């Protein structure tokens, strides 16, 4: 049974590596394709926010590549410099996706609210769980392993909750930029490739964590049966 879990985990890790490759390659590819609207990522983000009454949310450049994110605590959309200043399909796609999170926050989208509430707990549990697993394995303590499973389960659930948040943000982004003429219908394929590759990284990360959790559950159950 444990061999199956190992194989599934390695398969998920392989998917994760492939997903990261696809994100980078698609972003680089469509960063070289200028969007027909000629707008920068910052301009697109500003328009989406303003049209939805979010005038008080600033759009700021941040160093790095693929460092784009929406900060719900500071209520700010931060775009990497290639996205903030870029006029490409990739820039428009990523900028609109991050604004999708701001719109989720505005309407208190259920999965996003749950993720925000879970974050402090998960931040603690994900840091402690590995040490409990290691300690339990070294000391032969099922109690430590069981506690590690409980804490790690919270982290896995957090990643699963993240999936609808990310997919919903991408769905909103595609719908908005098409309806508002920020991209043409012929450019939708490029947008989908950029956003779908990014979403795949979250799927892969969730699978890796889920299979790892199941492996430790199997170890725990095996120890109880001995």
Structure characterization notes:
The protein is 75% helix and 5% strand. With 226 residues, it is mostly helical. β2 and β3 (76-80) form a beta hairpin. The chain is elongated. It starts with a helix and ends with a helix.
Report a brief summary of the structure.
Pfam families: Zn_peptidase_2. This is Zinc metallopeptidase. This protein has 226 residues and is mostly helical.
Keywords:
226 residues; mainly alpha; three-stranded mixed sheet
Lay out the secondary structure.
Layout: H1 2-31, H2 41-51, E1 59-62, E2 69-71, E3 76-80, H3 81-84, H4 89-106, H5 110-139, H6 142-179, H7 188-225
Parallel strand pairs: 1-3
Antiparallel strand pairs: 2-3
Helix pairs in contact: 1-7, 2-4, 4-6, 4-7, 5-6, 6-7
């Amino acid at each position: 049974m444990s061999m199956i879990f190992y194989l599934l985990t390695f398969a998920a890790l392989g998917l994760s590596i492939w997903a990261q490759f696809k994100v980078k390659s698609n972003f680089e590819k469509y960063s070289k394709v200028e969007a027909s609207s000629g707008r920068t990522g910052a301009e697109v983000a500003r328009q989406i926010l303003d049209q939805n009454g979010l005038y008080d949310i600033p759009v700021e450049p941040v160093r790095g590549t693929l460092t784009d994110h929406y900060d719900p605590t500071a209520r700010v959309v931060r775009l990497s410099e290639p996205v903030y200043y870029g006029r490409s399909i990739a820039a428009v796609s990523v900028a609109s996706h991050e604004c999708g999170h701001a719109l989720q926050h505005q309407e208190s989208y259920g999965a996003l609210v749950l993720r925000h509430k879970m974050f402090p707990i998960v931040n603690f549990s994900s840091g402690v769980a590995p040490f409990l697993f290691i300690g339990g394995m070294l000391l032969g303590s099922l109690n430590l392993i069981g506690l590690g499973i409980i804490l790690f389960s919270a982290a896995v659930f957090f990643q699963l909750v993240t999936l609808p948040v990310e997919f919903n943000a991408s769905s909103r982004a595609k719908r908005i930029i098409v309806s508002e003429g920020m991209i043409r219908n012929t450019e939708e394929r490029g947008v989908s490739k950029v956003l779908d590759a990014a979403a795949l990284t979250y799927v892969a990360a969730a699978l890796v964590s889920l299979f790892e959790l199941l492996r430790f559950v199997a170890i725990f159950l095996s120890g109880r049966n001995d």
